[in-house]
Specification:
Helix content: 25-40%
Strand content: 25-35%
Structural class: alpha+beta
Amino acid sequence: MAPMQRTLALLLSILAAAGGGACERRRAPDPRPMLRQALHGMLIYPRSTTVSMTAGEDAAQVTLSTADSVERVAGWFREVLRLNGWALQSDVTNRDGSIAIAATKGARPMWITLQPNVGAAGTTYSIIGAVVSGDSVVVADSASPTAPAPTPK
């Protein structure tokens, strides 16, 4: 085999090995089933857009963004939590303008962190929920009714 052909054959075998490895990579599991279970009964702020979703075996987090202020979004969540039977455990406003809210409903914990967007108006916030041992939450069909969400003021 000529040197040029050997180089080409070596290059093709390297590319095939690299490409083969890429085909065998596992896709990350779909976080939506755990999100439905961990965040069951929780509402998101109106007109929010999803930034990211992630989930583990017993918890899930969704990060969203809205054009409204941190204070307005936090006020809305405080009301939604109260109206939907969540007990506020902690509500802290930090010096940087971010707000951390923790609540429980029975044994189920929920954490909401809100921070003002940098360089633009609006808020980015994360909601984290966990499925606790003995949790009897049955995830209902998405068409099932939930408590009405208050309209932002």
